[in-house]
Amino acid sequence: MKKDIHPEYHTINVKMTNGDIIQMRSTWGAEGDELALDVDPTTHPAWTGGSTRLMDTGGRVSKFKEKFKGFGF
Q: Which DSSP state fits 34?
């Protein structure tokens, strides 16, 4: 492995959306820095099986649904 080309790998504190703080190893920031998350596995619909609704900005969702109705979505 070449020397001095890889970033430093160290421990940081990751603050979840509910306020919990966990320690992880990362190349982000410096040793002991805190990374606050906006979305994490406890709140993201992909992990929670969420039933969140799509926000229709400019009628895009409505146009999509109209265009592809009858496809069995």
A: E
